[in-house]
Design goal:
There is one protein chain. By secondary structure, the protein is mainly α. Among the domains are: 73 residues, Serine Threonine Protein Phosphatase 5, Tetratricopeptide repeat (Alpha Horseshoe), CATH 1.25.40; 52 residues, no CATH class; 61 residues, no CATH class. 69% of the residues lie in helices and 1% in strands. The chain has 19 helices and 2 strands. The protein has a two-stranded antiparallel ribbon. Helix 11 packs parallel to helix 13. The longest helix has 16 residues. It is globular.
């Protein structure tokens, strides 16, 4: 899921990449293909090489070989599925759907193909189509844990948290030691307000996988909600130490530090995140918040502008930019930012920003730092 500006944290992790790494056994005459120069590979060996290239993230060369496989075996379902996975990895999701759908049509009793189709549809934001495909997956393969896990993620994204919990339970009953499902279960339970159960789910995930950065980060969010700030900070730092490229932990740790009055320290954390990805919108948003809390209005505005360059309709960034404008007495521009933020995401911003707009429109002197008005939403 695109992280956007969801303050409640991350969606469930998605470790089950829609890759079916099945390499079907060949029977009868062994077909041959020559996808790489003068080499002649059997279909079996070619499929194995595609999987190896995929695992090495060499998607282009892998797709090239897969094209030759399909030329030799146009009705080979596993090859269509694998081609779909490769297209998806390259961001060609529409084409990926067609390839995996073809695989599922050729072998409708293969639950993994339907599960892959559902996951790709979910990534496209087609949640209804994702549910339909995943329902086919669990119908033909009731014990396929990835299908239940990914169905739980779809329910989570639809805010159907009870249904998500049930799907994750089915995933765990089908696969013992399924760390990702425990982590996802924790996220769903946390969304339901069942904090102690959520905490236990995260702990189970970490018992299985000690290097599970996402679970540490999610546990940190829960601990922060429980006002266990020191423990939350430790979990965020643990997540970063395990996966220095896992950017969400940086921005969330920086948010925690900023709210604890450690804004300068937060800036150092965010600098590390931006070295990994200078265009990461949640990090730029948190940078703007941290700079604003320190009174660095020029730097806060620059961070907002950088974020809006990547996500022009991000309501949370617009809201923060409005506060920057308010702090620097550009009241008309502040009102424009607040109005657009409310238009884009009224559920989140109507209640928080409407009092400021009313004060501005009535000519009431909205002063920086005025309790209950300027600081709302920061």
């Amino acid at each position: 899921m695109v992280e956007g500006s969801r303050p409640e944290g991350e969606a469930p992790s998605r470790p089950d990449n829609p890759a079916s790494k099945q390499t079907p056994r060949q029977t009868g005459t062994r077909s041959q293909t020559a996808p790489a120069g003068s080499r002649v590979l059997s279909i079996q060996k070619a499929m194995e090489e595609v999987v190896q290239l995929y695992e090495g993230r060499q998607y282009g060369p892998a797709a090239h070989i897969c094209t030759h496989i399909l030329a030799a075996r146009p009705r080979m379902a596993a090859a269509h599925n694998l081609m779909g996975v490769l297209l998806n990895a390259q961001g060609k999701k529409k084409e990926a759907v067609k390839s995996v759908q073809r695989a599922a049509n050729l072998q409708p009793r293969n639950g993994q193909f339907w599960a892959n189709l559902g996951e790709i549809e979910r990534q496209r934001g087609k949640l209804q189509e994702a549910l339909a495909a995943l329902a086919r997956a669990v119908n033909v393969s009731p014990r396929l844990p990835q299908a239940h896990n990914n169905m739980g993620i779809v329910h989570f994204e639809r805010k159907e948290y009870e249904l998500a919990v049930e799907s994750f339970r089915r995933a765990l009953s089908s696969k013992k030691g399924y760390a990702e499902a425990h982590n996802n279960m924790g996220n769903a339970l946390r969304a339901l307000g069942r904090r102690e159960e959520a905490l236990e789910a995260y702990r189970k995930a970490l018992e299985i996988r000690e290097d599970y950065a996402e679970a540490y980060s999610n546990m940190a969010l829960l601990l922060r909600e429980k006002n266990q700030i020191d423990e939350a900070e430790q979990c965020f730092r643990k997540a970063i130490s395990i996966r220095p490229d896992y950017i969400p932990s940086y921005s969330k740790l920086a948010g925690l530090l900023t709210k604890s009055g450690r804004g300068e320290e937060a800036l150092g954390i965010l600098a590390g995140a931006l070295r990994v990805n200078a265009k990461h919108v949640p990090t730029l948003l948190q940078l703007a918040r941290s700079q604003l809390s320190l009174g660095h209005f020029v730097q806060a505005e620059l961070a907002c502008q950088a974020a809006l360059k990547e996500a022009p309709n991000n309501a949370e960034v617009l809201a923060v930019l409005g506060h920057v404008m308010l702090k620097t007495d550009r009241l008309a521009k502040a009102a424009q930012c607040f109005e657009k933020a409310i238009e884009i995401d009224p559920d989140r911003h109507q209640e928080r920003l409407k009092p400021i707009l009313m004060a501005l429109s009535s000519g009431y002197p909205v002063k920086p730092g005025l309790p209950g008005i300027v600081e709302v939403g920061i």
